[in-house]
Amino acid sequence: MKGQLKGIVCIVIAAIGFSFMTFFVRLAGDLPTMQKAFFRNAFALIIAVATLLIKREKFEIPKNCRMDIFFRCLFGTTGLIANFYAIDKLDLADSNMLNKLSPFFAILISIPVLKEKPSKLDITATIVAFIGALFIIRPTGSNMQLIPSLIGLYGGFGAGTAYVFVRRAGGKGAKTPVIVICFSLFSCLLTLPFMIFRFVVMTPKQWLIMIMAGFSAAVGQFAITTAYKFAPAKKLSVFDYLQVIFAALWGIIFFGEVPVPLSIVGYVIIMGVALVRWEKARRQDT
Predict the structure, then answer these.
(1) Are residues 41 and 189 in contact, defined by beta-carbon separation less than 8 angstroms?
(2) What is the secondary structure of 19-77 as a DSSP string?
(3) Residue-wise DSSP of 186-235
(4) What would the pLDDT profile of 126-139 be if each residue is shown by its tens digit?
């Protein structure tokens, strides 16, 4: 129980860290999405390399999981870019919630990739979660945020798919720092040409904001990694949705963003099914 409490504290810290990352990405202003993504990943790359050097581990990619790491990089990077685009175009709470559909996408992708058979509860929860997403996306002809919402939805898909390939690569012996370095380097190389083509000179304030975005993301990444060392995902995953609450608070306080009633209905539905899945997993473990 003591380990679980530590895990909960760490995942709350991670939720705060990631919510601040989205806040700083929005606060950076009208910088191109690719430029924001590059600097966020460049910061993560520096930290990952430093971690590998401190631990004195070799940078080695096992041959049997190279394609898994490639797909982790591909879907993780495109998902991150989509998420950053949604952050710039949608309310912080909406963009965060669409990204938090990733566990439900992971359930679907795990079927062909990991050959895992989802339970009836998982299938039902996934269907209900996507119904909740419709309240946020609101696919009507008059909704000017439809395209950014769909791109934000892809952000959740990319993240969920990336998690699945991380699991498969990890199961084959790939080490976490190596996976992080591959992802960060791939992201930097992919976004670099776009950034050069549309580079916008940043003010000292924007440099500071982007450094804070990278730092916040690093805090979130390290905290969430530590959390899952103290307790299994099924006991902690529901607390990760606190990120949406924190993001909504930053949106209200700093940007005057008040979620529309339909979006709030969507939040309640998605967090509700996440809570049901968590409670079911908790009971099965006791």
Answers:
(1) no
(2) HHHHHHHHHT-S--HHHHHHHHHHHHHHHHHHHHHHHT------GGGHHHHHHHHHHHH
(3) HHHHHHHHHHHHT--PPPHHHHHHHHHHHHHHHHHHHHHHHHHHHS-HHH
(4) 999 999 998 988 77
Q: Is the pLDDT of residue 283 over 80?
A: no
Higher-pLDDT residue of 235, 41 = 41
Q: What's the whole-number mean pLDDT along residues 28-48?
A: 89
Quick count: other Cβ atoms within 10 Å of Cβ 78? 19
Nearest-angstrom CA–CA distance, 202 and 199: 9
DSSP3 helix / strand / coil % (the chain, rounded to 5):
85, 0, 15
Least confident of 32-46, 89-103, 146-160, 216-230: 216-230
Residue 193 CB-density burial (10 A; 0-12 exposed, 13-18 middle, 19+ buried): exposed
- Count CB-CB contacts under 10 A for residue 218: 18
Tokens of 65: 């999981």
Question: Which run of H or E residues covers position 277?
Answer: helix 261-285
b/e burial code for range 124-153 (CB count within 10 A of at least 16 → b): ebbebbbebbebbbbeeeeeebeebbebbb
Write down the residue that tokens 């000017």 correspond to.
144
Confidence of residue 40 (pLDDT cuts 50, 70, 90): confident
Predicted TM-score (pTM) of this structure: 0.87
